[in-house]
Amino acid sequence: MSRKRTAILISGRGSNMSALISAAMAPDYPAQISLVLSNRPDAKGLERAAEFGIPTAVVDHTGFAGDRKAFEQAIDAVLNEHRIELVALAGFMRILTPFLVNEWAGRMINIHPALLPAFKGLATHERALAEGVKLHGATVHYVSAEMDDGPIIVQGAVPVRDQDTPDTLAARVLQVEHKIYPKALALVANGKAKIKGTQVISGADAEETRELIWP
Ligand code: GRF
């Protein structure tokens, strides 16, 4: 089996990154994490990635004077240098232009902390609490030109408790993120998460999806 060379793009602490790196340590996992790239030189996740022995790179967006395409071309060049086949965005806090999205169409995935298509954008936990939803969660999806859109690969749900604050809810969602992201990357890397129009058909069975409502 050839493991798909995967880059993880981060901007911050990288807890999803760590979950992916840990999952990819299993010898039968279909992806290998070959690069962690950050747009912020001070991203905590870079240190963690280095501790894991993963090559890291920084493409600092502040060096491009607002030229988003040049910034993305620089990222694309680094990805190609490392012979990357799949890209997993994990808390990468830059809005992408059609350039990078098109270059990596069908090969780039993202995790969003809400059950899409609800609560696209930022402050998802605050907004979920304000709406009074009783289930919240996270979504891994292919990246498309529209932000937090694109075919859904895996979702995980958590209950919302009466006493939740944005922080307690975020912590519960984060645990489900760490479960679903490795699952979704595996489905993409082994070719099971096939895009059909605006949807993904993964063929996942009941056993594989049982734990997606947690706890
Ligand atoms: C996660 O909540 C993820 O869903 C969102 O950004 C956050 C990143 O957290 N896109 P981490 O850096 O993976 O810990």
What does this structure look like?
This protein has 215 residues and is α/β, with parallel strands linked by helices. The chain folds into 2 domains: 1-104, Rossmann fold (3-Layer(aba) Sandwich); 110-215, Formyl transferase, N-terminal domain (Rossmann fold, 3-Layer(aba) Sandwich), CATH 3.40.50.170. Helix content is 34%, strand content 23%. It contains 7 helices and 9 strands. Strands 3-2-1-4-5-6-7 form a 7-stranded mixed β-sheet, with helices on both faces. α2 links the parallel β2 (31-38) and β3. α1 (15-23) packs parallel to α6 (166-189). The chain is globular and about 45 Å long. 40% of the residues are buried. The model has no long low-confidence stretch (mean pLDDT 95). One of its GO terms (biological process) is 'de novo' IMP biosynthetic process. The record marks 148 as: Raises pKa of active site His. Pfam families: Formyl_trans_N. N(1)-(5-phospho-beta-D-ribosyl)glycinamide binds at residues 14-16. InterPro entries: Formyl_transf_N (IPR002376), Formyl_transf_N_sf (IPR036477), GART (IPR004607), GART_AS (IPR001555).
